[in-house]
């Protein structure tokens, strides 16, 4: 919290800080004058509380309390200006974070949301970055799965095409009587049978 306050104060321009100090001094002086006038007014108007007002007046007259009272008013106004600057800072950082999230939403998953000094925004940035990391891992996993599937289809197609081509070729020779004698015919049939067995094993392996 302390580091957060110091960071926000450092973001305030020097000219604006000086302006806030001057405004706080003027506002404190006006507030003190109004309070003193109110004390004297009540002292004249309400006799029942005259003794209390006289006591307050005597305390006010003590030199050590006057600076403390004025300082309290002064720092109260400074605190109000600080709160306004903090609200402005949070709004600016939040809008900047929205633009970063829009950049990620457009597909730039390598972008990382910058960490913030304000505790709430910093936690939000950390959670967003964690979500982006998980999304990036999921996308990479999906790409790997897609590549594995493509490789599997390619390999299976290649393994099935080889025996199937042989079977079709030898059956075509048999169907067109492209053999010399029964011995060659039996040889063709054995080859077809062997290739069919090979194809059967490949299909079983694929299902397994």
TrEMBL record:
The lineage of its organism: Bacteria, Bacillati, Bacillota, Bacilli, Bacillales. It is a multi-pass membrane protein. This is histidine kinase. The keyword Ribosomal protein does not apply. Pfam families: HisKA. It catalyses: ATP + protein L-histidine = ADP + protein N-phospho-L-histidine. It comes from Paenibacillus auburnensis. Its EC number is 2.7.13.3. It is found in: Cell membrane. Coiled coil: none annotated. Residues 148-208 form the Signal transduction histidine kinase dimerisation/phosphoacceptor domain.
């Amino acid at each position: 919290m302390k580091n957060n306050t110091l960071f926000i104060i450092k973001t305030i321009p020097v000219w604006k800080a000086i302006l806030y100090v001057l405004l706080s001094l003027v506002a404190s002086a006006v507030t003190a004058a109004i309070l003193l006038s109110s004390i004297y007014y009540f002292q004249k108007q309400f006799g029942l509380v005259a003794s209390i007002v006289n006591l307050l007046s005597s305390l006010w007259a003590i030199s050590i309390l006057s600076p403390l009272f004025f300082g309290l008013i002064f720092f109260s106004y400074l605190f109000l200006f600080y709160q306004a600057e903090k609200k402005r800072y949070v709004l600016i950082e939040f809008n900047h974070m929205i633009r970063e999230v829009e950049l990620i939403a457009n597909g730039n998953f390598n972008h990382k949301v910058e960490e913030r000094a304000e505790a709430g925004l910093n936690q939000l940035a950390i959670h967003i970055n964690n979500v982006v990391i998980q999304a990036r891992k999921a996308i990479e996993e999906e790409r790997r799965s897609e590549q594995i599937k493509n490789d599997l289809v390619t390999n299976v197609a290649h393994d099935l095409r080889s025996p199937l081509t042989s079977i079709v070729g030898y059956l075509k020779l048999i169907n067109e009587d492209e053999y010399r004698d029964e011995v060659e015919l039996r040889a063709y049939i054995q080859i077809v049978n062997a290739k069919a067995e090979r194809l059967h094993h490949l299909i079983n392996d694929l299902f397994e």
